[in-house]
Specification:
Shape of chain A: globular
Number of strands of chain B: 5
Strand content of chain B: under 5%
Radius of gyration of chain B: 36 Å
Strand order of the largest sheet of chain B: 1-3
CATH architecture of the domain at 70-122 and 194-320 in chain B: Up-down Bundle
Helix content of chain A: 25-40%
Largest sheet of chain B: 2 strands, antiparallel
CATH architecture of chain A: 2-Layer Sandwich
Oligomer: heterodimer
CATH class of chain A: Alpha Beta
Order of helices and strands of chain B: HHEEEHEHHHHHHHHEHH
Distance between the termini of chain A: 25 Å
Amino acid sequence: MARMKFLCDAERCIDCNACVTACKNENEVPWGINRRRVVTINDGKPGERSVSMACMHCTDAPCAAVCPVNCFYVTADAVVLHSKDLCIGCGYCFYACPFGAPQYPKIGNFGTRGKMDKCTYCAGGPEADGSEAEFVKYGANRLAEGKLPLCAEMCSTKSLLAGDGEIIAQIYKERAVTRGYGTGAWGWVIAYREGITM
Amino acid sequence: MTRVLARTRFFLRVLAIFVLLAFVAPLHAQQSRPVDPNADAVTEQMLLEQARRIEGWIAIPNETAAVLIQPAGRTWRYFHEVVLRWIGTIAILGMILLLGIAYLVVGRLRISAGRSGVKMLRFTPFERFSHWLTATSFVLLGLTGLNITFGRLLLLPLMGPDTFTTFSEVAKYVHNFFSFPFVLGLVLIVAMWMKDNIPRNVDLVWLKEGGGFIPSKHPTAGRFNAGEKLVFWLALAAGILVSVSGYLLLFPFYVTNIAGMQLAQVVHSIIAVLFIALIVAHIYIGTLGMEGAFEAMGTGRVDINWAKEHHGLWLEEERAKGHMPGPVSPAPAHPAE
């Protein structure tokens, strides 16, 4: 089985937000929910850097560890998913998540934030693959159709890579070697406890 | 002559260019290696060494989303999963164990002189209402709060995921909404009892003489003894801390950022488990631990002999004020509470 990961090649990200748009459209997420976002560091200054970020589907995911009702589960492809039927919307996963991935449909208080929503790696949820119920709650299940997450598929500069960790790490390494530089895979050490060694 | 000079100059210039090229060419060849055009660009490692989290600019109007990476989430997770569970278990079970030992060793503290059958008012109905308002809210808040930390370990395997989610959802609402009566009760208690809880010299004597835990000794006290005063001030301090941190948690990110939210949860949970341990002791001494104590908050009236033994100064003050204990219908030796 593959170990699915995301990798954002920050040398290539141009902050076009195509990944964000692709995600929103493919999964029909409501207003205010951003499963994926692009953050620009040192905006407008020398050394500016943009990074596209969503759930990294961490190894030993912190969200799953702190969830008071244990609503998370990990698929055979190492994708971290959750059940909205079990989620109580407490917000603890957001405190534990190193990447700010969990989203809540309402801005209300601790009790009224609604069920948590996050990037599913375009892999739906616990409902039957490709079912209407699954789509309404979690969005598309492209993985079940043999397709990768749409954000990475639609990345205009192929900055955002999705797929088996070893394969995308190899692609990144080849790129970095060819062009002679690279700032590494953002978030990998924190998410997977391993960077990409050159 | 000028033509010769011009030619010589031209020749020298050409020579100079060739000489220069001879030096420059190898340098140029070395530089054909790709230059990192972003050599001054920030790296993840560099940013994390500078600050505790990586923040930037984001196109959406959600400032919280501008935090790209916050490794502190891992630390908070460790606190929540390991540290808090140990502190909570040790504080609460430790206190219960301690009280169990106290009960076995010292036993129930009896009224030495027995019941007189004469009772006098200790707490007015409004005081009792305030106490029970706070107490009921506290018990509900405590149990529903413990569910967030320990429910997954203890109740989830018993209830199953669906039932446990329903239970936890209800518990969460109970926790949220009972915070308001709790704070109201706390404010009322503080307003009513603050002046009687100011430490006095007699409190030191009370503490030196074993705080009434030595059955042969009955150190005197005012309306509240040093033990009760300790509970009062600790409850006030803990109450303020849990309320402030609790309302920060109740309205996430309204006033603080991710680090503030994590800190609020840390303060809220540590203080809460210590507060629960304190109140477990308070409940013990008010019920099982001492004969004649519960009725002060139950019916509001205490036996005169109990008052003499535990709150002698207060009894005298009440007498001086003319609040004489009225004759009471002959009470049974051990009234049912």
